[in-house]
Structure formats: C-alpha cells, structure tokens
Design a protein that fits this description.
The protein has 372 residues and is α+β, with helices and mostly antiparallel strands. A hairpin with an 8-residue loop joins β9 and β10. α3 packs across α4. The N terminus is likely disordered.
Length: 372
C-alpha cells in the first residue's frame, strides 16, 4: 500500500529550528517513527543551485586567534597559494577566490565562490556556527525600524556639506538584500552612487531627507560656531527633525536614530536635537556606516554632494578636485587669482588651510587637540 503524503513529509508543526551554542542552527524534521533527518546542508545545497538566490562576492567577519590559526591550516592543507599583503597576517587564493586575514582580526573573503567558501568551509570548519542567511535571527535589531544619518563633503575643500537621513523598516531592509547597497566610501563610481540613490529613494516604505549646506551658508555657520563638529551636530539634528516631521509616513515609527560618532562627546549631537528628534533614542557609534540605514544615508549624501559639486564646476568653468590635496591647492590658487576671494568663498570651505595658502595668507597655528 502506498504511504500517505503525511507519512513521508514532515508537517509544519513537526519542524524544529534549534540554536546550538553561539548562533549555530540545526534544522530537523521529525517523522511518525520519531527519527530525525537533518536537512540543513541539503537545503543549503539546493539554495546554491537555485538561480533565484543572489550570489555574493565579498564577505567579512572577525576571527579569534584560534579561528585564524584553524583557517590558515585549512588553506595550507587545501593547496591555497599564499602571498604577502600589507597589514595582513596571512593571505591566500585559489580558483578566483582570495582570503585575507588582517592584523586587526578582520577576515575578508572575495571572489566568485565566496558563498560556497563561507557556507562549506568557513562556517562548519572554522567558526563552527552558521551566520550567513541567519543574520536577522542572530541579531533581530537588524530589522528594527530606524533612521540612519550620515554626511558627505566634510573633508572636501570644494563643494557643500550634505547630510542625509534615511528611514528603514523590515520591508525596506528585505528589499535591499540583493542590491549591494553599502557605505558610499566603498563605492568608487559616481554612476553607481546615483543608481543606488535612485533605488533608495524609490523603495516603497523608505522615507528620506537631505540637508545640503552650500558653501556661503557653511562659511557663515562656521564663522558663528567656530567648530566643524558643532556645525555637523546642527546638520544631523536638522535632518532628523525634517524626517520626523514626516512621521505619518514612518510606518512603523522609528525606535532610534543611528549616526557616526564624529565628536569626542556624544552630547554634541544630543544637545543639538530639536523637539521631534528628542522623541527617539539617538545612538552614536564609530563605523556606524556598517548599519544599512546609515550606509543608505551615506549614499544619498554623497549623491547630493556629487551633483552640487558638478553644478559649481559648471558655474566656475573649471574642475574642482575632491578632497584636500596638491591638486586642490593648485585649483584654489588658480580660482583666487582669476576671480578673487569672493569667488573662492562661493565654492569652498574657507577655514581649510588651503584657502589661506591660495590667498597668500599666513596659515593659522596648529592647535593641540585636547579631550573635553
């Protein structure tokens, strides 16, 4: 007699997802005879062969010394070719895959076979825990509705300071999983920045705001505040307030706002927050751009900076290099000699030493930084 479907296939209530140790998952099915059939690896293998699963070409994580030693030994055993990489404890590659472990304890895996390496070598044999694909289970905070804040242009002599805020919820985060949205500093193409910015703005459920501070306004504010950090704090507070004024669109309401900690004291931004911004928790931390909401804000801020700098170049009729370098010095001097100080103020941040050099003025003394 043919077995019934219920006898051979586990029912939903007969499935277990068990957490073993630090975030290690085992999925098992329980049949009527009480026997368990582990199908974690089978599920993963099927996923790898499913064209709907997005490939990954880069993966980073932290390793302990013991885990690093175990990985290095495995790479030797499996014929990986080792080479020297600056600041790396070891680096090896094979079959278009590179594995680099840095002195900082950070591991970077890159290449076509990254997913297979992580799922069938790194996790089972080195980390001895499963994380890839279970990030939200290991860390539920990743799905919390929140606001990310970041800026662009702070270190650029030419161009404005642009500060952006992005609201995300679970729907938005899931929509961005296959897109590759990441910190703008890791994206070198202006075209890609603009593409990501359009994608962010057009994602259902995502709400954004950008506060661009043009150069003339920037120079006025700096003359009044005498501190880049205070100016940044005001910009962060302003963009959070602008976003909170759209709270009817923030569904569900954000539980916190996250930004990079750019000042020695977290109170610098805390004191600058306006009425609505004080209604949610403000989290400031170093390398905040690792959070998806902050990464998205960094992209929007960078896109705004790129577009506004291009408009300034068109108005000036000359290239305005980014950052602060010898090229920037030369362009600043050229602009000053051709059009004078007023033209320089319209496109640059006048407290930079570059502005003093361009105008042939003595540079201000370097003040020793002291912790407040």
């Amino acid at each position: 007699m043919e077995a019934s479907r219920a006898d051979v296939e586990p029912r939903t209530r007969d499935l277990e997802l068990r957490i073993v140790g630090a975030g290690r998952f085992t999925a098992s099915s329980i049949g009527k005879n009480g026997r368990r059939s582990n199908f974690e690896l089978e599920t993963r293998h099927a996923a790898l062969n499913n064209p709907g699963v997005q490939p990954i070409t880069s993966h980073t994580c932290k390793l302990t010394d013991a885990e690093a030693a175990r990985l290095e030994s495995l790479l030797h055993e499996r014929g990986y070719e080792f080479r020297d990489v600056p600041h790396a404890r070891f680096a090896a590659g094979r079959d278009k895959l590179t594995v680099v472990f840095y002195e900082s304890g950070k591991l970077v895996v890159q290449g076509k076979n990254t997913r297979e390496f992580v799922e069938f070598v790194l996790e089972p044999e080195v980390l001895q825990r499963v994380e890839l694909g279970y990030e939200e289970v290991v860390n539920p905070d990743l799905l919390r509705p929140r606001i990310g804040v970041d800026e662009s242009g702070k270190g650029d002599f030419f161009g404005p300071l642009c500060i952006a805020a992005v609201y995300v919820n679970e729907q938005v985060i899931q929509a961005w999983k296959p897109t590759g949205i990441r910190d703008s500093k890791r994206i070198t193409s202006d075209k890609k920045i603009r593409e990501f910015a359009d994608q962010i703005r057009n994602t259902p459920g995502c709400v954004t705001s950008v506060v661009p501070i043009g150069n003339e306004a920037y120079n006025r504010l700096y003359a009044k505040m005498r501190s880049v950090n205070r100016l940044l704090a005001w910009g962060h507070a302003r963009v959070i307030e602008n976003l909170m004024q759209q709270r009817s669109r923030l569904n569900p309401p954000p539980v916190l706002a996250i930004s990079d900690q750019f000042a020695a004291s977290k109170e610098t931004v805390g004191k600058a927050l306006m009425a609505l911004g004080r209604e949610i928790e403000l989290v400031q931390r170093h390398k905040a751009e690792s959070d998806l909401a902050v990464a998205a804000a960094s992209i929007l801020a960078r896109a705004e900076f790129i577009d506004r700098l291009a408009a300034l170049e068109k108005a000036c009729g000359m290239t305005l290099p980014r950052g602060a370098s010898k090229q920037v010095d030369e362009a600043a001097k050229q602009l000053f000699e051709a059009r004078g100080s007023e033209a320089l103020q319209q496109v640059s941040k006048m407290h930079f030493r570059t502005a003093f050099r361009a105008q042939g003025l003595p540079e201000p003394e370097v003040r020793e930084w002291k912790r407040p």
